[in-house]
TrEMBL record:
Residues 1-17 form the signal peptide. PANTHER family: BETA-LACTAMASE FAMILY PROTEIN (AFU_ORTHOLOGUE AFUA_5G07500) (PTHR43283:SF3), BETA-LACTAMASE-RELATED (PTHR43283). Keywords: Signal. It comes from Cnuella takakiae. This is CubicO group peptidase, beta-lactamase class C family. InterPro entries: Beta-lactam-related, Beta-lactam/transpept-like, Diverse_Enzym_Activities. Pfam families: Beta-lactamase. Residues 44-410 form the Beta-lactamase-related domain.
Length: 427
């Protein structure tokens, strides 16, 4: 007992002797940043301008921070090519699947509070997911299908790691696209006024899975389901939960599911490529039969997988929080151990391509995939449907992202070039 008491007292003494950890706060650009070549960073300007001048992209907003200091933050090109409207750093972009990281953090906050366990069955919170079935056969002629019983229930962990067997509406496999369309399940982008998340997620729970839970990685509506789980547990609509628990604490003033009217003018019009690969402004979702004004209009559908819009700076605050181990500017959203858990491989030996693995909401750079990227091992990242990508590199203490509102983007290689140039500027 004396020995144990001595150990405890020693531990307390060590803890008291440790200096308080400094929380990194995202600062505006410094005149000079140690360990970074300003001349080499400036080459990013030329890269982005080249893609604009060649008509490959309308414009881009990029931001990079190292050690809590912004080392690059510029907007190059146009918000609207046809009108010649210059793009600005405070422009608001549809971030689509970059919403997933925020929803994943929201779920893990509830996990820390003891409101859920990662291996809870989804049916505990949404009964319609009880006794799931797996697609066995599909008749293309009439979209009928047969199913077989799933070997197990879907878990929250499988939703976070996209291994549940749930597919994506509109951009998934032909079979699942047809099944979801017939049932009225949507992708989550620009839903018509009056449609609500819970109704669609309950329908989704009755539809077949693409494969057995936990056996494959299938990118799908998993995070939309998690968004509804947040609503069920918290008793709040997802937009209010995000605003109260994440956006306001972090100082994210320009991130919304549906923009206030005062900010409509800052929304970047979505561009597309015509048959001649020329850029033209289009609406965000008209071809999908949903609200063409999204998100510059009122809405009721809060998609945890794809619904948010934001600025490069706002989202960088969120990334910096994760890089800091769950805290930003004196506000802690998650414990460091929770961030480590989220960025640990959760799919085991399941193949992701290029050696990448997947955690709880993020793609992970592994020793194997490090051979194909400038990012350090342990970096985590993802992107959005309208040609946006972000990454967080704990080893180099870097957060970075590139926003381009363009669909499709025939020159997606710009994202890799951008990352390469960032790392080439490190001394």
């Amino acid at each position: 007992m004396k020995h144990l008491l001595s150990i405890l007292l020693l531990a307390c003494g060590i803890a008291q002797a440790q200096p308080a950890l400094k929380t990194s706060v995202l600062l505006q650009p410094a005149t000079q940043t140690t360990g970074v070549s300003a001349a080499r960073l400036a080459r990013i300007d030329a890269l982005l301008q080249e893609y604009v001048d060649k008509g490959w992209i309308p414009g881009a907003t990029a931001i990079v921070a190292k050690d809590g200091k912004i080392i690059y933050h510029k907007a190059i090109g146009y918000s609207d090519v046809a009108k010649g409207t210059p793009l600005t750093k405070d422009a608001i972009f549809r971030i689509a699947s970059q919403t997933k990281a925020i929803t994943s953090v929201g779920i893990m906050m509830l996990w820390e509070e003891g409101k859920l366990l990662l291996d809870d069955p989804v049916s505990k919170y949404i009964p319609e997911f009880r006794s799931p079935k797996v697609l066995a056969s599909f008749n293309k002629a009439d979209t009928s299908y047969t199913t077989s019983p799933a070997k197990s229930e879907i878990t929250l962990r499988q939703l976070l790691s996209h291994s549940s067997g749930i597919g994506y509406a509109g951009i998934g496999s032909p079979e699942m696209n047809a099944i979801y369309a017939k049932a009225g399940v949507i992708s989550g982008i620009g839903a018509p006024q009056g449609v609500v998340l819970g109704d669609k997620m309950k329908i989704l729970g009755t539809l077949p899975l693409q494969h057995q839970p936990g056996e494959k990685f299938t990118y799908g509506l998993n995070t939309d389901v998690l968004g509804y789980v947040i609503e069920v547990i918290s008793g709040m609509p997802l937009d209010r939960y995000f605003q109260q628990r994440i956006f306001t604490p972090l100082g994210m003033k320009d991130t919304y599911f549906y923009l206030p009217q005062s900010k409509y003018s800052r929304l970047v019009p979505l561009h597309t490529e015509d048959r001649d690969k020329k850029l033209a402004v289009t609406d965000a979702t008209a071809s999908r039969g949903v609200n063409p004004n999204y998100p510059a209009a009122p809405g009721t559908y809060f998609s945890g997988g794809a619904g948010l819009s934001s600025t490069a700076y706002d989202y960088a605050l969120f990334m910096q929080m994760l890089l800091n181990g769950g805290t930003y500017n004196g506000v802690r959203l998650l414990a460091p151990a929770t961030v480590r858990l989220m960025t640990t491989n959760q799919i085991g030996a399941i193949e992701r391509g290029w050696g990448h693995k997947f955690g709880l909401g993020f793609e992970l750079v592994t020793p194997q995939s490090k051979a194909y990227t400038a990012l350090s091992e342990g970096s985590f990242s993802w992107g959005g449907y309208f040609s946006s990508q972000y990454w967080i590199d704990p080893e180099k203490k870097i957060v970075g992202q590139l926003f381009i509102n363009l669909l499709p983007n025939s020159h997606g290689e710009i994202h890799d070039k951008f990352k390469n140039m960032v790392y080439a500027a490190l001394e």
